[in-house]
Amino acid sequence: MKPKELGALLLLGALWGASFIFIRIAAPVLGPIWLIDLRVWIAGIVLLIYALIVRKLPDFKKEWKYYLMLGLLNAAIPFSLIAYSAVHLNASLTAILNATTPLFTAIVARIWLKEYLSVRKVIGILIGLVGVCILMGWSSVPFTLEVWLSIGASLTAALFYGIGSVYTKLTFTNTPALSLSIGQQLAAGIILIPLSVVTVPTATISLTVMIAVLGLAVLCTAIGYLLYFYLVEHVGPTKTVSVTFLVPLFGIFWGILLLNEHITLGTIVGLIVIFIGVILMNGVQKTKKIRV
Question: Is 139 left (phi over 0), alpha (psi -120 to 50) or beta?
Fold first, then answer.
């Protein structure tokens, strides 16, 4: 990997890790639904403008129903669940829980696609789940009902990413990645409009919250996806998937630096164990990606 490509990979990890910080800042003020609806609409429009500039404008007329389902499974539901989690969990913990996405993807692929689960995959899944248990059992977070629901929401979001990944594989065989990203964001925005109407935020929206929304939509989502496309094209999906390990690391780093979050020994041990599980999974399933 050349220095330019390595820099792009590190930048992508930093941006996607920062998404949990922006969500943590904005979600308690705007609410999960409004925050995510703003995120996907702004990101979708930015990506649409980019597609117009490079003359790769997608045509959604024939497959709009499939894009609506993609937006629901891969953005509207998981993005909203993560935003809900961020109201009660710190950014570092949310980022680490999101790293379980490849484990859930393997389980969904086994059930839906009947993909073979080797011993190595099974061990990887079990180790990853042990990592989550360590993370929870050794956490300094007070385990109220809201916290348990938030943990469940984060893990369910990872599950939906797995479902969305398998759905994409089945439905969009030869569709360009840029078209998928634009369609996913705009479809999610349309789906969330009815819920946004009945969940209008009442709190005062500060400049900090506005910056967090723009950072989440433009930097983490629109530019993040463009960086992802660049890396897949230049270094391939196998090397690009290593961003899976960078995202929670940067999530922890930004949490400490910007939100003064404290990291416990349990957080470190749980993260390492989850990484071991994901590494075992990537030995076979090399093209899965983490999403934020």
Answer: beta
Q: Tell me, yes or no, whether 265 lies in a domain.
A: yes
Report the 10 Å Cβ neighbour count for 127.
Answer: 19
pLDDT above 70: residue 282: no
Q: Is residue 289 part of a domain?
A: no
Task: Provide the pLDDT for residue 283.
Answer: 62
Q: Cα 47–53–54 angle (5° rounding)?
A: 90
Mean pLDDT of 262-286: 78
- Looking at the structure of the chain, the number of domains it has is 1
3-state helix, strand and coil shares in percent for the chain, rounded to the nearest 5:
80, 0, 20
Nearest residue to 95 via CA among 263, 213, 281, 226? 263
- What is the rounded CA–CA span in Å between residue 265 and residue 75? 32
Residues near 57 by beta carbon (within 8 Å), at least 6 away in sequence = 48, 51
